[in-house]
Amino acid sequence: MSETLTQTLHRSDEAVSLEVEDNYCGRSSSVSEIEEDNSSDFPFNNHAPKPMVTISEDEKEEEDTIYVAVGKSQSSIEALSWTLNNLITPSTMLYLIHVFPEIHLLPNPLGVGMIPKNQVSPEQVESYMAQERGKRRELLNKFLQLCSASKVKVDTILIESDLIAKAIIDLIPILQIRKLVIGASKSQIRKMRSRKGSGIADQILQNAQEGCHVSIVCEGKEVNEQIAGAIATDTSMSQKNKHQQNASVSCVCFNF
């Protein structure tokens, strides 16, 4: 692994730490780590500078840029595999977005339970965070290996946040994301089709900024049309039932 560049951007009410590591895996790759400051729910606002130092406007214009949200679930692997098989071109630049939780509690040095982060020494905090970074790299390695096998240029964006869907939704206008791929399980898709979904994929699909196409992938297939069709059918049936109820009420009113 080549040199590591760390850049910290200070603003009036927050700080964003960017860790960029070049040539991590594949033809071209890097890791950008965005850490939230406790004073803000999310480290971006509409006036923030671009957090990805590896992205330039010229690169965006020249390359077909695709973002894939990845995590610990099998659906993330399926989403990436679908992307590599269906969307990748020789000019594609792929970004893997991984949101990991903030660290509030650490293992008790005495070996019993967890204790607040501010009750342990800075050295213990850094040691624990280093272990967590190692776990993240191990997790991301399987995704990067898939990208490497497909010979696609890839970077990884790591975001520290307890609100996964919100973190990704807020990232869309910041990075001007136009293509986003998200994996979902069969149970999540069933809930989305019945309009009872409140999972990550559903939240992002419903709240993504206009101009960003969100592809939902389940078991290796894009299911956007199925979801949209089910919602449209449900809406149509609801309107039909409402009309029938109104008609029934009208008949009753005139039946003296």
Description:
The chain has a single domain (4-222), classed as HUPs (Rossmann fold). Helix content is 41%, strand content 25%. The chain has helices spanning 57-62, 74-86, 122-149, 164-175, 186-193, 200-207, 224-253, and strands spanning 4-10, 15-22, 30-35, 64-69, 92-100, 105-107, 114-116, 153-160, 179-183, 213-218, 221-222. The strands form 2 sheets. A 9-stranded mixed sheet has the order 1-2-3-8-5-4-9-10-11, with helices on both faces. Helix 4 (164-175) runs parallel beside helix 6 (200-207). The longest helix is centred in the last third of the chain and has 30 residues, at 224-253. The N and C termini lie far apart (86 Å). Residues 1-28, 36-62, 231-243 and 246-256 have low confidence and may be disordered.
